[in-house]
């Protein structure tokens, strides 16, 4: 299951790919970037060149259109035959549409934790791009038919370079795509099918353009007759309603996840078991000595981020779901107490009031205080503080996420998916 690349192999791969591409990939010294900011037309031309590079399998051109940090990944990606997911699975690509996004509209979808250049650069331009694809295999990265992506570019060395290439959130897709779709458009049905894929994904159900479940890396669960969550959540000062699955019945539950090892590893993308990922992340994000209710809160968050990103990967083009900056996964850091908790929670997941997946954002916080309620950003130290006051993980989750932008209509839920 593990796909690890040795340092020697990486060095050889870089030499081979540079020889193969000749002078296409250029790592130049940074000039003065006080030049006038590049226009939207520059970025649109880059996107058009990228789609042409994919369709013609010109991977040298494709790599050169990426930011410098991304180029270093794609050099080894194209040199290593064991990488089969991502842009290499696309056999033909035809550009359908490019929709400009305002900074305010695209802000929530920009992956600044994974791509810091999106925080530091003074010229970021984002687009929703429709690409009609034929692929060697269908999975969460690409499928046959019209695919929508959010593509973000940043100015680097005087040129606009692609930094982010992944699927947009359902909220962004509906706000940006629906207003420009016309019923007399020759590709109207394709566009609706592509939006349906994004809507299904928001409910944790991965499908293709024909509304068929994609099973690679997932167990497809139908929960029509599932029992309610039997775990007692009624505690003093807790919420009284026992959560259940509601009406949405199909779920794609991940059994694997692909992590880019760009923090402690060689920069390779490694496929691992989903439970293994959670067990080797919790002790790097939460203190193992903290209260059980705080640790359970952390496990739900880590599982929630992992599940969200297996459905909506960090990089469709790169073929990986998360990076070590998404959450700090480090192999062989599991512990018995958290392993036992994770095993007991194996079939429990976090969704919002409307039974949709959301990205359960979290950060450090400050010792000795819970911080503010309803911010949509759980605080790790705050979870420990609340647990020490006797609150359950369910209360803690809702302290931060209830009525936030992630669950604007009420409480989040922990659901049982058999």
Describe what is shown at a glance.
The chain is built from 14 helices and 13 strands. With 418 residues, the protein is of the alpha+beta class. A hairpin with an 8-residue loop joins strand 7 and strand 8 (269-273).
Summarize the structure in words.
- This protein is an alpha+beta fold.
- It has two domains: 196 residues, NTF2-like, domain 1 (Nuclear Transport Factor 2, Chain: A), CATH 3.10.450.100; 199 residues, no CATH class.
- It has 14 helices and 13 strands.
- The protein has a four-stranded antiparallel sheet, sandwiched between helices. A three-stranded mixed sheet has the order 8-7-9. A two-stranded antiparallel sheet has the order 5-6.
- Helix 1 packs across helix 4, helix 11 packs antiparallel against helix 13 and helix 11 crosses helix 14.
- It is globular, with a radius of gyration of 22 Å.
- The two termini are 24 Å apart.
- The N terminus is likely disordered.
List the helices and strands and how they pair.
Layout: H1 7-21, H2 40-55, H3 59-64, H4 68-79, E1 90-101, H5 103-106, H6 117-120, E2 124-135, E3 145-156, E4 159-166, H7 170-176, H8 188-202, E5 218-222, E6 250-254, E7 256-260, E8 269-273, H9 274-279, H10 282-285, H11 292-311, E9 322-323, H12 336-344, E10 348-351, E11 362-363, E12 378-379, H13 380-388, H14 393-401, E13 413-416
Parallel strand pairs: 7-9, 11-12
Antiparallel strand pairs: 1-2, 2-3, 3-4, 5-6, 7-8, 10-13
Helix pairs in contact: 1-4, 11-13, 11-14
